[in-house]
From TrEMBL:
Bilayer topology: Multi-pass membrane protein
Ranges of compositional bias, category Basic and acidic residues: 796-812
UniProt KW keywords: Cell membrane, Membrane, Signal, Transmembrane, Transmembrane helix
Organism in which the protein naturally occurs: Rhizobium beringeri
Subcellular location, record wording: Cell membrane
UniProt-recorded name of the protein: Mechanosensitive ion channel family protein
Length: 844
């Protein structure tokens, strides 16, 4: 018997050994033909290998950028491109370090799970654990080395960006403060260079026009057509949206302040943008269709820029000064003063535009620098003389307010400023600082016009945002007709429109001013990217774009939750005839769940690390333990009420001193509306821990009672029959259980009965009882049954006076004694006084 288990065990071991040898041989056989293919297939790069290659590539790019910055220290355009590439390289290096972080955290957590190696005297660990620890430690060291290289590279790139910025700052300052000797020989050289430049440009323009007309006629017309179509689309759309704000209504004699501001801002902005779109798209299509030659393209671009500048200043002058329409004017100037100032500003804009255009022609034709200097000198002198001449004018409105009357002088301070600025421009140009004079003159015209337009836009937004001001506008009347909005909604829409006007004015004006002050488009792109992605406050990095994305996602999920609530309540549960309380609980639960999910999604999309709130959460847990107990208790009690539903919305409840209808159940408190329409907010913890009476917990069936008292001479059976008869006529009274009358007691002055009946809805009890009391009173009067009033029996006892007998007192004579002695005591009759008093509080 013992040999059988041993034999079986031996056979099993032999079988396993043979099977193992068979599988081992099969595996070896299967691997033999695959070995060459595996040797030929290259292994995929690990994340560490990829990071190493990217860092090496970034080092090569950094070296090229450093060399380019040294070689082009005097070329601002090239430095701008290098700064953009350096900024992109910095973001790429940071991305490398960020991508290595998850793997580093995994290694750290795994090493923590494995633990430290055993110390001396402790039992040894498995070899596989030691190998894994060593491999993870080596990989962690490699990641640390790569992260250190990435950080050093990022620091170097940041340093290069700062150096490029400093180079551009020095180049800008040197360009402005470069001094040129002004002499007669310089003017002669400039005159001869101008003649030569005009001849070369005439020949180049003629040859280009002939070439275009012969070979590029169709592309040129196609480019012009496409650019005109783009501008017309923008202008037509603008007229559809802002048509009333692009032209002045001549029939309006006294336009409102909001109307004047709005037309001035939108007419200037939209029409200038439409022309800008026309000019930009024209240049883009002409250049894209190879219509422009390399020597002509800068000149055409400068011509379009000059046209745009003059048009913008002209629209600005017409919007602000309104030379021919004094009732639309935004400043207190006379007609002649507004006209003269408008012409002066337009003349300065033309001078600046021509200076810019001729300077571009000189650069394209390779003219000497002296010609550009003399052109800028002449432009600065003309603008300075215009400012000085304007300061002696009389543009201010007359004291009587008549715009046609002769005006008054400038205020003293304003006249002095104009003269000082004009004289400063002339003096700066004549002393050789022509670049500085030209820059100041340009900024006086263009930057001043942009700033004033921005200011008008901000004033327009402020005026529209003012309470009860937006309702008088055309757009508000359109919203009222289209969406049937009320005065409150229109006023709130005015606030939104005002904020939108603020945004348009700032987002259009600030970039223009930065471009005018020497910034490039690439600078604005870098600034916008940093503003929206990585705003640093100390050690915290805030992404405005991420925050906006998080807000939008939160709003989207919240709106989806609200839609889901309405859909479930109005379609699923309403069609299923689900109880109102269940519907309210489901809606509330979905609402809180959706808000929680929306908050998590929004916070995650905003890039906020929830783990950073661990310290705050621990502090809150301590606060919950001490100061927030009631809040947490009410919150948990609210969840219990929503799930357990001891009462629901619409129930008639009694809790302590509160009695009424449940209107709303939230996670913190429950709103109970009394029958006097008073809302009582009861904390949920009181409803969970206290006694709550619910009249409509299972259903709305309830019993009503009407106490009735009759006189003693009434027949009790007749009374009971009358009450049941009247009750049977009420349709709302339930027949099962059937009504009945209880003979309660023999009262002190009446026979007391109580009519009891059941109603399907306790909400009808007040009306039913009221009507039934009226019918009972009418029937009792008809049957002669008296409803007694409360009675009180009052008994008065009159006592005899005590005898006047005193032994020690002198007695009077018999006659007097007989006269003064009172009559013998006789028992006075008891007088009973029965009074009837009305009791206004007796039960009815």
């Amino acid at each position: 018997m013992r040999l059988r288990p041993i034999l079986l065990r031996t056979i099993l071991l032999l079988t396993l050994a043979v099977a193992g040898a068979h599988f081992k041989g099969a595996a070896a056989f299967a691997q033999e033909p695959q070995a060459p293919a595996a040797a030929q297939a290259p292994l995929a790069d690990t994340p560490l290998d990829q990071a190493t290659k990217e860092i090496d590539k970034a080092k090569v790019q950094l070296t090229a950028l450093q060399d380019g910055a040294k070689q082009n220290a005097d070329n601002d355009d090239v430095l701008v491109g290098l700064a953009t590439k350096a900024d992109e390289l910095s973001r790429a290096v940071i991305t490398i370090s960020v991508n290595l972080r998850p793997r580093f955290d995994q290694i750290k957590n795994r090493l923590a799970e494995i633990g430290d190696p055993p110390k001396d005297g402790q039992p040894p660990e498995a070899e596989i654990v030691t190998q894994e620890r060593n491999a993870l430690a080596a990989e962690r060291a490699q990641i640390n080395a790569l992260t250190g290289d990435a950080e050093n590279l990022s620091i170097t790139v940041t340093k290069l960006v700062n150096e490029i910025t400093e180079m551009r700052r020095r180049l800008f300052a040197d360009t402005l403060l470069r001094r040129t000797e002004i002499s007669v020989s310089v003017l002669d050289d400039a005159a001869s260079a101008f003649v030569h430049e005009a001849s070369e440009f005439s020949q180049a323009l003629s040859s280009w026009a002939t070439f275009v007309w012969k070979f590029k006629r169709f592309p040129m017309f196609a480019a012009i057509f496409l650019s005109l179509a783009s501008a017309l689309i923008l202008l037509s759309g603008s007229y559809r949206l802002f048509g009333s704000y692009l032209r002045r209504d001549e029939a309006v004699e006294n336009p409102s302040y909001i109307g004047r501001l709005s037309i001035a801002f939108w007419s200037t902005l939209i029409r200038t943008l439409a022309l800008s779109v026309l000019l930009v798209t024209s240049f883009f299509f002409l250049n894209g269709f190879n219509v422009l030659r390399p020597d002509i393209a800068p000149v055409i671009g400068a011509l379009f820029g000059a046209i745009g500048l003059v048009y913008f200043v002209g629209r600005f002058v017409n919007a602000i000064f309104a030379p021919n329409e004094p009732h639309w004017r935004l400043v207190r100037l006379s007609n002649r003063g507004a006209l003269s100032i408008g012409y002066c500003l337009l003349a300065m804009a033309v001078v600046n535009a021509l200076d810019y255009l001729f300077g571009t022609i000189g650069e394209s034709m390779g003219s000497p620098l002296v010609l550009t200097v003399v052109r800028s000198l002449i432009a600065a002198l003309i603008i300075g003389l215009i400012l000085i001449s304007v300061s002696f004018g009389k543009p201010m409105l007359a004291r009587n307010g008549d715009p046609d009357a002769p005006g008054r002088h400038w205020p003293r301070g304003m006249a002095i400023i104009l003269r000082v600025v004009g004289a400063g421009l002339i003096l700066t140009a004549l002393t050789g600082y022509v670049g500085l004079a030209r820059f100041v003159a340009t900024q006086l015209i263009i930057t001043g016009a942009v700033i004033v337009t921005m200011y008008v836009g901000l004033l327009s937004g402020k005026a529209i945002s003012r309470q009860e001001s937006f309702g008088d506008t055309f757009f508000a009347r359109f919203l009222t007709r289209r969406f049937k909005l009320g005065p409150v909604a229109i006023d709130q829409a005015g606030l939104v429109v005002g904020l939108a006007i603020y945004a348009v004015a700032l987002l259009v004006g600030i970039p223009l001013i930065l471009l005018l002050w020497g910034f490039h488009v690439q600078d604005l792109q870098i600034l916008a990217y940093r503003l929206f992605t990585e705003v640093r406050l100390g050690g915290i990095s805030i992404s405005l774009l991420g925050i906006c994305t998080g807000i939008l996602l939160f709003a989207g999920v919240y709106l989806l939750t609200r839609w889901l609530q309405r859909w479930l309540d109005g379609n699923v549960m309403a069609r299923s005839h689900v109880d109102l309380g269940v519907r309210n609980s489901v809606k509330t639960g979905i609402g809180y769940l959706g808000v929680g999910i929306a908050a998590i999604i929004g916070v995650s999309a905003a890039g906020i690390d929830l783990s950073s709130f661990a310290l705050v959460a621990s502090a809150l847990s301590v606060g919950i333990g001490f100061g927030l107990q009631n809040i947490v208790s009410n919150f948990v009690s609210g969840l219990i009420l929503l799930v357990e539903r001891p009462f629901k919305v619409g129930d008639h409840v009694v809790s302590g001193t509160a009695e009424g209808i449940v209107k709303r159940i939230s996670v913190r408190a429950t709103e109970i509306e009394t029958f006097r329409k008073q809302s009582i907010i009861v904390p949920n913890s009181e409803l969970i821990n206290g006694l709550v009476g619910n009249w409509t917990h299972r259903n709305k069936i309830g019993r009503s009672e009407i106490p009735v008292s009759v006189a003693y001479n009434a027949d009790p059976q007749q009374v009971m029959d009358i009450l049941l008869e009247l009750t049977a006529k009420i349709p709302l009274v339930m027949r099962n259980p059937e009504p009945h009358v209880e003979f309660l007691r023999f009262g002190p002055y009446s026979l007391d009965f109580e009519l009891r009946f059941f109603l399907a809805d306790m909400g009808d009890g007040m009306a039913v009882r009221n009507n039934l009391r009226i019918e009972i009173l009418k029937r009792f009067k008809a049957e002669g049954i008296e409803i007694p009033l409360p009675q009180t029996d009052l008994t008065i006892h009159r006592e005899a006076r005590p005898a006047l007998a005193d032994a020690g007192r002198d007695q009077p004579n018999e006659q007097e004694n007989s006269a003064d002695t009172p009559m013998e005591e006789e028992e006075q009759p008891v007088r009973q006084l029965r009074s009837k008093t009305a009791d206004g509080n007796r039960k009815g």
